[in-house]
Structure formats: C-alpha cells, structure tokens
Amino acid sequence: MKNFLIPVLFFLICSSATAQPSSYSDAGVSFIDLQKKFPRPDQSFKKKEDTLRKQFAAKKLDWPAKFVYIRSFKYDSEMEVWVKNDAKDPFKLFKTYKVCALAGTLGPKRMEGDYQVPEGFYNINEFNPNSTYYLSLGINYPNVSDRILSDQFRPGGDIYIHGSCVTVGCIPMTDEKIDELYIIAAHAKNQGQDYIPVHIFPIRYNVARSVSYLNGLTKDDAGLKKFEDRLEDAFDYFEKYHQLPVILINDKGDYIINGAASAKKQPVVAVQKVPKPPVQHRTRTVGVIPESVHQWPEFAGGADAFMKYLDKVGADMVEYLPKGIQKAYVQVEFVVDTDGVPVNFKVLRGTDDAEFIDELISKLEKMPTWKPALLHDKPVPKKMIQTVEVEAPKEQL
Q: What angle do CA 350, 308, 168 make, to 5 degrees?
C-alpha cells in the first residue's frame, strides 16, 4: 500500500508565513482586549506585562513577539519559550521555565485515563481565562498522528499547559509562570499567529543522563524507540537552525521530519557511574494510595509557597553538587500521608550521586506538614512528584 504524507500545516504557517492582522482586530475588538474582559487575564496583564517588557529588553528582544514557539521536556521537567518578530529570522530563547509536576512516564499518550503527558507536535488551540487550574492554554491533542496510533474510541483529550502546579496528564506551571506564558501567547495570537507550536519531547536529547535513561527505557521496545527517534530528528533540526522543521505524517501515523538527515548530530555518549548504596531515611507503611482525589494535598501557603520552598532547598544544595556539575534538575517522589506528614522520599531521576541524594532527602524530610488530600471528605495518602532545581550562581561558573 502506498504511504501518504499528511503535512502538519501549522508548522508551515508558523515557520514561513508573515503575521496577518487578527480577525478580532477586524471586528474592532482585539484579542488582547477580549482577554482583559476576564478578571484573571486582566490581573495578569496588570501584574506582569511591564515586567515582561523589561525582560525582553534585557535580552535585546522586541516586545511583544509576533512568533512564539514552545518546547517542553518531560524527563527534564523544563519548558522553553522561543520568540522572534520576523518569519525569516531564527528563533531566540526568551526563558526556560520549570514544569512543577509530572504524571505518567516517558512515551506518547495513547488512551483516555492513562495519565500520560502527550509527546509529539501540537499547537495551542484554546485560551481558557476561567480554568479550574487558574489559567490554561489548550493543545490540540489528539493530532493526526495520535488519531491513527491511539485508542480509536477513547484517545483522551483536554490537555493543557496550566497553573496550580498539579497534574493528571497535563503540563503544570505555577500561577506566576502561566501568567507570563499566557500573556506572551496572547500577544502573538493578537498579531496573527493563530497556530502557536508546542513540541513535547521525552527528554533533552543533548543531555547525557537523559539520553542514558531513555536508552534504557527503549532498549526492549522497538516501537517506542522508533517513535522517540523521530522526535529527536525534530529536536536536532531546531538545535541546528533555530527554525521549525516541516513535519509530515504518513498513513501509519509516523512523523517524518523534512531535512532531518542534514541536521543529524553525533550521538551523545552517556557518562557511566556506579551508584553508591542508598542511605536509609524516614519511611512509613502507608495505606492504599488512590489514583484520584477530590482535593489534592496543600502545602502551607499554597503552590507558590511550595515552589519558593523548593527554590530555597535547591539553593542550599548547590554546595553538594558533584564535581564538574553546575546544574541539576532532580525529580523527587514522596507521599503526603493522612496526617499531612511528607514521608517515603526517593529520587526518581536527575542524579545518581549517593551523597547528594542523601543530603537532599535529609533536607526535604524537614518539610512542614501539609494539609492532606481528601477523598469523600476523608484524609487519604497521596503520592507527589516534584522537581528541585540546583544551579550554581553565575559567578561560580
């Protein structure tokens, strides 16, 4: 049977078209004005727009950006925002944000209820000013590839980049960070970028530890390896040119990255290190941990206070970074028990240095008591996954 290639049109539009006036402007009401009619975006613009303008100026970027490109890395818990104002110019990195929680594992989303964050090539298709999770930007999952490869009757949907720092398959940020992303994306849409691309990768393909983890995951799964290799082709193309590749989809649902061969990089050689035996820490035998709850655990002061707490722990951990490592994103799992006490800490990824892990867990075990999760108005244990960013100050680099 002949393979048919389906172009993913929004990548062509974003990478080569000149921004056109928005239909909202034609109607006499700009998209920005429309957003400001809602309380949360209105407050976001008042709080953050001037700050963003200054941040753009500090990086010699024109505000507001006409073209925006977002790429997210699941294992590394990061999201990048790239911008430019002329279609012919290469994209420039504006900021890297921390993704503050993760559901599921590496690999694409293939059915409703699997708690997976999708992987692949998408675009923003919704601005939700009244989201349950503060503010949210919807992405167009399932795309053409997903509809071919996923469960035909229950592929799932309703995937968002959002605030509130909790997730069951979306990409969560703190409210402060989604404020910024929402404003940047709204300005781009206001200037005619109706298709804001969002690439979701399993890992950063140029980070040795991430590559090592993915290789271990795919070594016995040829189908997953083939899928992740095609995503790597798109990553390589953008890394080389800082322009979006043309992405096609064949009749089997496979991504085809135009120009991938010319952008192929040398493989990253993962650094092998023999881990030390883990140190025993405070643990509990907890009851059944439900997959879903009516109310998630709440840190004293809320999500923003928790992120500030993690930032402080990250700053305190700088002196324990292994020799030669200046930056680490360490993903930690723990359980908030029924009495709100966080227990059973373990590091999932980001480092295998036993001394570093021992010190990090020791610090996190001093975490304040939470308000526990509720299910049918009764406290229940709930598993949490968070990322601690540890980065040496620039003067130490």
A: 60
Rounded CA-CA distance 38/49 in Å is: 16
Lowest model confidence (mean pLDDT) among 45-49, 118-122, 155-159: 155-159
Beta strands (DSSP E) in 113-209 are 120-131, 134-139, 159-162, 171-172, 197-201
C-alpha to C-alpha distances, 239 to 53, 123, 264, nearest whole angstrom: 26, 19, 10
The verdict on 192 and 316 lying in the same domain is no
Half-sphere exposure of 38 (CA within 13 A, CB side): 14
Domain with 328 in it: what CATH number? 3.30.1150
pLDDT: which is higher, 294 or 21: 294
What does the buried/exposed string (b/e) look like for 15-31 if buried means 16 or more CB atoms within 10 Å of the residue's CB? beeebeebebbeeeebb
Residue 302's region, left for phi above 0, alpha for psi from -120 to 50, else beta, is left
Confirm whether 69 is domain-assigned: yes
Give the structural domain span for 309: 303-396
Beta carbons within 8 Å of 81's beta carbon, 6+ residues apart: 68, 69, 70, 93, 94, 95, 96, 97, 181, 184
Higher pLDDT, 317 or 393: 317
What pTM does this model have?
A: 0.66
Q: For residue 395, what is the DSSP state?
A: G
Cβ-contact 289, 381 below 8 angstroms: yes
Q: Give the C-alpha separation, 203 to 221, whole Å.
A: 17
CA 116 – CA 107 distance, rounded (Å): 8
Q: How many domains does the chain have?
A: 2
Q: Which DSSP letter does residue 394 get?
A: G
Residue-wise pLDDT for 208-248, tens only, equals 889 998 999 899 899 999 999 999 999 999 999 999 999 99
Q: Which residue has the higher pLDDT, 6 or 314?
A: 314
- Given a contact cutoff of 8 angstroms between Cβ atoms, the answer to whether 331 and 386 are in contact is yes
Rounded Cα distance, 230 and 135, in Å:
32
Among 286, 43, 299, 287, which residue's Cα sits nearest to residue 166? 299
Burial 165-175 (b: 16+ CB within 10 A, else e): bbbebbbbbbb
Between CA 286 and CA 380 the distance in angstroms is 9
Examine the fold and report which residue of 237, 263, 289 is the final residue of a domain before the chain moves on. Answer: 263
Mean pLDDT calculated for residue range 309-322: 89
Radius of gyration of the chain (CA): 21
Identify the sign of the CA torsion 357, 358, 361, 363. Answer: negative
